[in-house]
């Protein structure tokens, strides 16, 4: 199906987005941060190189690309979120330029006012817009570059001396977070190896190299060790609109175990991981990404391979009630406050885009 | 407009049109403003207040009337204008119409977002009769989804049976269950979807008696509990518990009764911790977002 | 051959410990609190060790020589008594001892770490491999003849495995006591005993231990026999062989002597792998039987009685109980069920296959667990029987849980407070099941009920071989954790069991009835033979 879409859109003007998609798809961009910076670069070139005259036209260009991305990569969130955020930036810039020009307050009216959807048509040609948007994006990128550091800097607020922290698998953000905390205090880290991909080994290794006492355990031991754990700190793939997380498979049971022992469960997430998508109980499409079955049942297992169905889900959904804190570069928040962060990041109309 | 006239107008809308109580109340208020005999803003205020209390005396849910009117009044008087009364009245009516227009659309917004919840093979439990729930179910059926609805009969007025009748017409598979079998059925269903009479500041909802029971059961079995509601049902109330609900919400014609212990309450309060999400016209909200919206509105 | 090469590398590369050190550490583990302190207190250590050694190996003809390596680790050598049954080994042992002595002296003189390490490990490996082969030959020679069907199914597919398991995992195991030093994990304050690697060396030269037990010890420690039922049955089989073969020395009572021998044998087994509750319970019963027997009757009669008892126990408490449980679970399986199981359990396998044979229509989801990957074995057996199976790892639990209708789990033991002790990860399954409101049935014969109470998985547990986490055949890429730098900071932990709280379990299926977890003490009370 994806190839059809590619063919369909494979004309001159969307070539840029195809390149982005292929980079994401073929894992040129190894982590979310790379995807994010790549997307911002893509946006910049879109703004500076494509032909557009009004804000509306630009927004249409962006929306069109979002559509292509979301159909080709149904599980990609980061680049979509950044594009979605850019729509808000465009609107804001447009309004502020217009405001200066006309001296009117055009801030969007509040919700219950019936005319809250009264829309500016964004059709005026504003010559300043391009330059200001590019400025904004540069700023945004700088913020993004420092975000990992900002998150890591909060580490000492969350980790106390002699605590034991449990983490699962590998996350660059968590790694930096723990290493930053280790500069000020001493603590122990337990790393669950995260079956199948076993990225926990790399994580544990890196932490040990940073001189943090690290214990590697198989995933099955999580429940047994949970009473000795003071905090669970994990990275996440996405923060959903209800405060739930879409994270690496296996974290759901870890979250349940943490809840069972009332251990705080903290997720580290960059702002671009906040996604305005609500999930229902049967929302298979959001979570149905399956990895290679060979990671669960090796090909060497013999003739029974023909008879056995193997599932290797990539993501788990962690409902908000199991999450204690979501820590972003702007500080920690309860999952119940995610809706608010979303309204700061995006315009509601773009939620579905 | 006199008392008789007001209640007649109000009842006429409710009985002859398929609108929620809140909308009917708002339209009645519009009519009052339109036909008011007073010539001062203060007088108009009095008229509106009288109108509201007359409507509350009808046997329709007071909670819905209250929350609907409160927001409406707040909205049309958002900026009290120091102009001529007629001018003022004109602006109020204009705003009122805008408000109504917006809220007439609101149900569609909810239906669109909530119908996405209903996938194939889903079993839904609902309580009493809520228009917006019904429309959501219809919408999902229109999209050829195969699902099943369990409806509580919902004593004392058996409003659940009315919903069943409607579902029968639309050909949506449904089962009417006893109010007391909520716990029994909970194991089999996928989620609960109910409407609300009003949404309170805490993010909880006031709804037909039995909703709370359902929410407690759903929590115990870890089933999602969804509330579908229009934003005009948001109210500034903050009940601390069932006892703290205003008497007029709980009892029909409460002024007539003296011993409330022996009267069946009509509504109960479901605290926010039991609610998974609220589907409203201003978006899908977590219970915590309700207070945010109310603060934005009133402060 | 490739594999052997690999294991060779592993031996050196995994942790850089020489075998000498490993062995010494094993003995020393109890006294060793701090690695650093070791170096200073070399002399002090050697004193209590002497005492301990003689305690442990009372009957061993021993000629110990203690060498101090540059690490401050003491190496102990025990001269092999010539009168032991496996005389073929003694020559080799001797040769090995000489090697070790020589090397140790070289070490002392040169104090060059790395060179010695390599040299030593190579020679050690050779000696080691020889040893292992010996043990295997021994094991094969003494193949259990009288075995129950259950046991056979457990062991037979893995007979070949002994080879690889012994050569591969054994050397690695020796490292653990160092890795998992109590002092390193002090912030966690885990009161674990160290993981104790089995010394084949010790095992083959232990006198007065019946070969059946020696074999059993090897099989336990190499995890060739897994699962508490299989372990118990194999123990009982070994026991019956012991009873048959035992000759009472003059001037001694048969039952007294048997008790003595049993004591030694079990303490050996305990060293190989801590005993399961099933084994302890069976032994407890056997011993009480032994004391009840009138010592005035002839030895042959006592033997017969004891053998009868063992047979009855296997038959009634394990096999018939399994049958009864299977029937009870069968009642609870309805057509169209999707049953989730975890790991490999002989009882669960039996239940499912019997249910399948009685024409119930159901599907099975097998949850596999790293690092033991028992689930694969379970899948193999179930698919062989023709059952429709799905496999997920424990990480994919949420993905399948929504479709599951029942969870059927095996148990290591049921504790008096109603908690279920079972293979690590069981509690995670139960937690997820609770979150999805799915009924969890734990199948457990009443002979596995334990008098112990425990509310925490840590206070009593068994530490498995942590190096299994690094085994290459389960990893796609070699683990970076093998790196030698900052070794002090790298620890591994592999608990074998966990304790599932009673409220996560819907019911326990026993041969008596389907019961709530909380009825364990009641069962223990009404079942007097358990006392």
From TrEMBL, chain A:
SUPFAM superfamilies given in the database record: NagB/RpiA/CoA transferase-like
GO MF term set: guanyl-nucleotide exchange factor activity; translation initiation factor activity
Keywords recorded for this protein, A-Z: Cytoplasm, Initiation factor, Protein biosynthesis
Cellular compartment(s): Cytoplasm, Cytosol
Major localization class: cytoplasm
Xref: InterPro entries: eIF2B_beta_subunit, IF-2B-related, IF_2B-like_C, NagB/RpiA_transferase-like
A cellular component term, taken from the record's GO annotations: eukaryotic translation initiation factor 2B complex
Domain of life assignment: Eukaryota
Pfam families: IF-2B
Gene3D superfamilies: Translation initiation factor eif-2b, domain 2 (3.40.50.10470)
Summary of subunit composition and partner proteins: Component of the translation initiation factor 2B (eIF2B) complex which is a heterodecamer of two sets of five different subunits: alpha, beta, gamma, delta and epsilon. Subunits alpha, beta and delta comprise a regulatory subcomplex and subunits epsilon and gamma comprise a catalytic subcomplex. Within the complex, the hexameric regulatory complex resides at the center, with the two heterodimeric catalytic subcomplexes bound on opposite sides.
Membership in a protein family: Belongs to the eIF-2B alpha/beta/delta subunits family.
Entry protein name: Translation initiation factor eIF2B subunit beta
From TrEMBL, chain B:
GO cellular component: cytosol; eukaryotic translation initiation factor 2B complex
Coiled coil residues, start to end: none
Highest rank taxon of the organism: Eukaryota
Principal cellular location given in the protein's record: cytoplasm
Pfam family, one: IF-2B
GO MF terms, alphabetically ordered: guanyl-nucleotide exchange factor activity; translation initiation factor activity
InterPro entries referenced in this protein's UniProt entry, alphabetically: eIF2B_alpha/beta/delta, elF-2B_alpha_N, IF-2B-related, IF_2B-like_C, NagB/RpiA_transferase-like
Subunit (UniProt): Component of the translation initiation factor 2B (eIF2B) complex which is a heterodecamer of two sets of five different subunits: alpha, beta, gamma, delta and epsilon. Subunits alpha, beta and delta comprise a regulatory subcomplex and subunits epsilon and gamma comprise a catalytic subcomplex. Within the complex, the hexameric regulatory complex resides at the center, with the two heterodimeric catalytic subcomplexes bound on opposite sides.
PANTHER family for the chain: TRANSLATION INITIATION FACTOR EIF-2B SUBUNIT ALPHA
Function in brief: Acts as a component of the translation initiation factor 2B (eIF2B) complex, which catalyzes the exchange of GDP for GTP on eukaryotic initiation factor 2 (eIF2) gamma subunit. Its guanine nucleotide exchange factor activity is repressed when bound to eIF2 complex phosphorylated on the alpha subunit, thereby limiting the amount of methionyl-initiator methionine tRNA available to the ribosome and consequently global translation is repressed.
Protein name: Translation initiation factor eIF2B subunit alpha
From TrEMBL, chain C:
Pfam families: IF-2B
Region (Disordered): 1-72, 138-164
Entry's transmembrane regions: 492-515
Subcellular locations according to the entry: Cytoplasm, Cytosol
GO MF: translation initiation factor activity
Biased composition (Basic and acidic residues): 1-19, 31-41, 147-163
One CC-aspect GO term: cytosol
UniProt feature, compositional bias: Polar residues: 56-70
Swiss-Prot/TrEMBL keywords: Cytoplasm, Initiation factor, Membrane, Protein biosynthesis, Transmembrane, Transmembrane helix
Subunit structure: Component of the translation initiation factor 2B (eIF2B) complex which is a heterodecamer of two sets of five different subunits: alpha, beta, gamma, delta and epsilon. Subunits alpha, beta and delta comprise a regulatory subcomplex and subunits epsilon and gamma comprise a catalytic subcomplex. Within the complex, the hexameric regulatory complex resides at the center, with the two heterodimeric catalytic subcomplexes bound on opposite sides.
Family, similarity comment: Belongs to the eIF-2B alpha/beta/delta subunits family.
Protein name per Swiss-Prot or TrEMBL: Translation initiation factor eIF2B subunit delta
């Amino acid at each position: 199906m994806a190839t059809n879409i590619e063919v369909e859109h494979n004309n001159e003007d969307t070539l840029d987005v195809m390149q982005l998609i292929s980079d994401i798809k073929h894992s040129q961009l190894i982590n979310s941060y790379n995807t994010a910076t790549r997307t911002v670069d893509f946006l910049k070139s879109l703004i500076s190189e494509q032909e557009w005259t009004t804000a509306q036209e630009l927004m249409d260009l962006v929306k069109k690309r979002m559509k292509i991305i979301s159909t080709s990569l149904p599980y990609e969130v980061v680049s979509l979120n950044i594009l979605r955020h850019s729509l808000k930036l465009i609107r804001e810039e447009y309004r502020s330029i217009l405001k200066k020009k006309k001296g009117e307050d055009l801030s969007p009216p509040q919700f219950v006012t019936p005319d809250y959807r009264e829309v500016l048509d964004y059709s005026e040609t504003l010559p300043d817009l391009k330059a200001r948007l590019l400025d904004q994006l540069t700023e945004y990128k700088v913020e993004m570059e420092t975000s990992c550091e900002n998150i890591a800097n909060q580490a000492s607020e969350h980790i106390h001396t002699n605590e034991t922290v449990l983490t699962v698998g590998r996350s660059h953000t968590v790694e930096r977070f723990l290493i930053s905390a280790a500069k000020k205090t001493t603590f122990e880290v337990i790393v669950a190896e995260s079956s199948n991909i076993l990225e926990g080994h790399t994580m544990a290794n890196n932490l040990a190299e940073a001189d943090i006492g690290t214990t590697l355990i198989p995933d099955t031991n999580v429940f047994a060790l949970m009473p000795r754990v003071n905090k669970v700190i994990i990275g996440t793939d996405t923060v959903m609109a209800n405060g739930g997380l879409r994270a690496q498979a296996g974290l759901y049971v870890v979250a349940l175990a943490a809840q069972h022992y009332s251990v705080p469960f903290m997720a580290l997430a960059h702002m671009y991981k906040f996604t305005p998508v609500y999930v229902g109980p049967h929302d298979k499409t959001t979570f149905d990404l399956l990895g290679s079955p060979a990671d669960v049942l090796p090909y060497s297992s013999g003739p029974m391979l023909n008879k056995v169905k193997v599932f290797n889900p990539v993501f788990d959904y962690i409902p908000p009630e199991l999450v204690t804190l979501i820590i972003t570069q702007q500080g920690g928040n309860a999952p119940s406050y995610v809706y608010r962060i979303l309204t700061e990041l995006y315009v509601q109309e773009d939620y579905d885009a | 407009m006199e008392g008789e006239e007001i209640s007649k107008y109000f009842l006429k809308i409710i009985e002859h049109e398929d609108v929620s109580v809140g909308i009917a109340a708002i339209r009645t208020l519009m009519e009052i403003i339109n036909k008011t005999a007073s010539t001062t803003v203060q007088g108009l205020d009095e008229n509106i207040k009288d109108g509201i209390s007359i409507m509350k005396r009808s046997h329709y849910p007071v909670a819905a009337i209250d929350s609907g009117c409160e927001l409406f009044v707040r909205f049309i008087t958002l900026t009290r204008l120091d102009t001529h009364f007629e001018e003022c009245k004109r602006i109020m009516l204009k705003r009122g119409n805008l408000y109504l227009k917006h809220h007439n659309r609101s149900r569609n917004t909810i239906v669109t977002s909530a119908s996405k919840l209903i996938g194939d093979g889903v079993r839904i439990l609902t309580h009493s009769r809520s228009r917006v729930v019904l429309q959501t179910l219809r919408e999902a059926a229109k999209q050829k989804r195969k699902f099943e609805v369990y409806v509580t009969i919902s004593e004392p007025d058996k409003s659940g049976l009315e919903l069943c009748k409607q579902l029968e017409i639309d050909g949506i598979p449904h089962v009417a269950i006893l109010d007391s079998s909520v716990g029994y059925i909970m194991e089999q269903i996928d989620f609960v979807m109910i409407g609300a009479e009003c949404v309170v500041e805490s993010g909880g909802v006031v709804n037909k008696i039995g909703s709370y029971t359902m929410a407690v059961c759903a929590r115990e079995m870890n089933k999602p509990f969804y509330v579908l509601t229009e934003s005009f049902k948001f109210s500034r109330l903050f009940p601390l518990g069932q006892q703290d609900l205003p008497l007029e919400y709980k009892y029909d014609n409460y002024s007539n009764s003296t011993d409330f212990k022996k009267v069946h309450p009509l509504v109960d309060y479901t605290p926010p911790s039991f609610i998974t999400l609220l589907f409203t016209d201003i978006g899908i909200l977590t219970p915590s977002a309700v207070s945010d919206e109310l603060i934005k509105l009133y402060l | 051959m490739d594999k052997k090469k690999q294991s060779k590398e592993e031996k050196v590369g995994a942790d850089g410990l020489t075998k000498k050190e490993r062995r010494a550490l094993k003995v020393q583990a109890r006294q060793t609190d701090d690695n650093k302190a070791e170096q200073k207190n070399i002399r002090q250590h050697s004193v209590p060790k002497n005492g301990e050694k003689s305690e442990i190996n009372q009957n061993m003809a021993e000629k110990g020589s203690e060498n101090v390596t540059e690490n401050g680790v003491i190496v102990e050598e025990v001269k092999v008594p010539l009168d032991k049954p496996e005389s073929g080994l003694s020559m080799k042992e001797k040769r090995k001892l000489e090697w070790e002595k020589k090397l140790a002296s070289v070490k002392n003189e040169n104090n060059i770490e790395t060179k010695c390490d390599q040299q030593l490990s190579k020679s050690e490996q050779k000696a080691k491999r020889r040893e292992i082969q010996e043990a295997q030959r021994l094991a094969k020679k003494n193949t259990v003849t009288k075995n129950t069907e259950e046991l056979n199914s457990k062991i037979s597919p893995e007979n070949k495995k002994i080879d690889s398991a012994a050569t591969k995992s054994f050397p690695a195991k020796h490292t653990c006591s160092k890795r998992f030093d109590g002092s390193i994990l002090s912030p966690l304050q885990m009161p674990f005993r160290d993981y104790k690697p089995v010394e084949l060396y010790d095992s083959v030269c232990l006198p007065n231990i019946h070969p059946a037990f020696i074999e059993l010890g090897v099989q336990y420690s190499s995890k060739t026999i897994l699962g508490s039922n299989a372990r118990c049955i194999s123990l009982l089989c070994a026991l019956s062989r012991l009873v048959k073969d035992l000759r009472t020395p003059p001037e001694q009572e048969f039952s007294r002597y048997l008790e003595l021998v049993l004591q030694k044998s079990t303490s050996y087994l305990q060293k190989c792998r801590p005993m399961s509750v099933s084994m302890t319970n069976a032994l407890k019963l056997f011993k009480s039987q032994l004391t009840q027997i009138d010592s005035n009757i002839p030895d042959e009669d006592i033997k017969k009685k004891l053998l009868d008892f063992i047979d009855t126990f296997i038959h009634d408490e394990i096999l018939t109980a399994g049958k009864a449980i299977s029937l009870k679970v069968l009642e609870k399986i309805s057509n169209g069920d999707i049953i989730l199981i975890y790991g490999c359990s002989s009882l669960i396998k039996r239940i499912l296959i019997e249910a399948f044979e009685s024409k119930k229509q159901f599907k099975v989801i097998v949850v596999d667990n790293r690092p033991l990957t028992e689930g694969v074995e379970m899948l193999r057996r179930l698919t062989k029987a023709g059952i429709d199976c799905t496999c997920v790892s424990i990480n994919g639990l949420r993905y399948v849980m929504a479709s599951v209708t029942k969870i059927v789990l095996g148990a290591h033991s049921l504790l008096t407070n109603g908690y279920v002790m079972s293979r690590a990860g069981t509690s995670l399954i139960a937690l997820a099941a609770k979150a999805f409101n799915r009924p969890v049935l734990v199948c457990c014969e009443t002979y596995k009920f334990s008098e112990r109470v425990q509310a925490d998985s840590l206070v009593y547990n068994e530490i498995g071989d942590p190096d299994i986490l690094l085994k290459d055949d389960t990893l796609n890429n070699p683990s970076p954790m093998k790196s030698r730098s900052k070794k002090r900071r790298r620890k591994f932990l592999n608990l074998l069991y966990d304790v599932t709280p009673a409220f996560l379990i819907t019911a326990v299926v026993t041969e008596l009835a389907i019961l709530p977890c909380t009825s364990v003490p009641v069962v223990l009370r009404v079942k007097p033979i358990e006392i």
